[in-house]
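Attaching the record inline, Q. Sequence:
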Amino acid sequence: MHKLLTDKPGEKMLLLGNEAIARGAIEAGVAFTSTYPGTPSSEISTNFFQVARESDLYFEYCTNEKIAMEVAAAAASSGVRSMCVMKHVGVNVAADALMTLAYVGVKGGMVILSADDPFMFSSQNEQDNRYYAKLSGLPMLEPSSVEEAKELLPYAFDLSEKLQEPVLFRTTTRINHSSGVVTLGKIKKPDIKGNFTKDPLNLVVVPAVARKLRQLGIQVWGWHYVRGNNPLGEANKAIERVVNLQLDGYVIDAEGPYKERGKAAAAKKFMDRVRKGLPNTPIALSSYRFPSYHPQLPWREFLEQCDYNMPQVYWMFSENSGEQLARCVREFQSITPYRPIIPTGAAFKERGWKPDPSEVEEFLETAKNLNLTAANLYSWDSCRANLPEVWQTSAEYEWFPQPKPDDITEQYIAALNKRDLNGIIELYNSNAVHITAARSIQGYDEMRIWYETLLSSLLPKAKFLHTGFSGGGNSRHLTWTATSELGAVHNGNDTFGLYKGKITYHYSFFTLSPLETA
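Structure, as predicted:
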């Protein structure tokens, strides 16, 4: 039996770095391996070749590195854990496939090993392939010892499956050709049977797909996981893709990398460039559900230039989807700036958990009861293939019930647009109070003076836009914008307290920004 198939967890073994890497992949349950061999990575391929003759592992020597990456990607797209191995200059040959794969993603874990060769012991150059991680936007792991090389491989596969993206694994000659004592772990039984589902809308990366969806009346938005290490580079790539694919909107997924110290400046730089490059494209932020848990994230810098907030309300290992959504909305209503919320619910499987159809229905029902204009579920491909009951529940959910009378917040904005002072005043009780940070007024007479000033002096000929509301019963929270001859309001934020269907308490917050002049 090959020594790398030794199934004795806890036993120590002296291994060459490349042997330790192969062992780590075997412990991770790798089922498909491919390579175009080149020093300093060669022994990894040799060991995979030998192990494949004694186990269920599939191994393939390929014509070149591009083919090696493509066949490994095909396996990963079928849900099989795969690994392709090459030396650093081989990534240049495979770069075309790598960049496209970064957009398409994978289902099963996929690790791409690049064996770099500082000092050119056996190569024509000593390029640093860490830059490929920046260029592609893919995560990269880099072990610092033989033992760590083995230990990082299972994590690399898990990370790939969590992100549904390949993971780059960079080594150097000193790691590949050093020897060290490693502690053997448990060998995970590989899943050697793949299941490929034809999915041209996700796997065919050409503008024709976007055009076809648009013909069917489906808006096409782009989604982008951002890291902030190169904010202008990420922004320019986003602008290029949105323009080239003629996308209807753009979603920014900002998570862990943007919680690092100093990333607020990167967020502002990124958002300034994106908004300047996409002035008329709706932009949304997709991030954590509870901002109180993640104060390090630069919420203000992102939301100030977003049109929507799409928090990820994933209730994993819980059964209170509605309660979590309600808390999410409350927390975002308490921070500035507030943006209309379109929450993202859970429709995926992870670590043995999956949502129950009743939880998905509760999530959607809560969104509707909170007067949110829309909701969405992640992810379409995983749900349809793996959770048919959840797919059916979401597809059959009646989001648009029988029309209801306009909410008082909508009546209020409509009256402002008509400049109907009597209609505005009729929305209030006779003893109503109106409060801003600068003053408080009460009664119809003072209300009329205020609205005359607002509509004739502060915002003459303004167009008001109702951007969202929440609440029910005797309370409402309203967001709005306005544009006029003298300036614009981007952050209108009002609270109504009602009695017998009319406004008794009204708190307003907004700032008037002057119009930009050429």
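The longest strand covers residues 487-499. The chain has three domains: 3-183, 200-396, 408-514.

More tomorrow.
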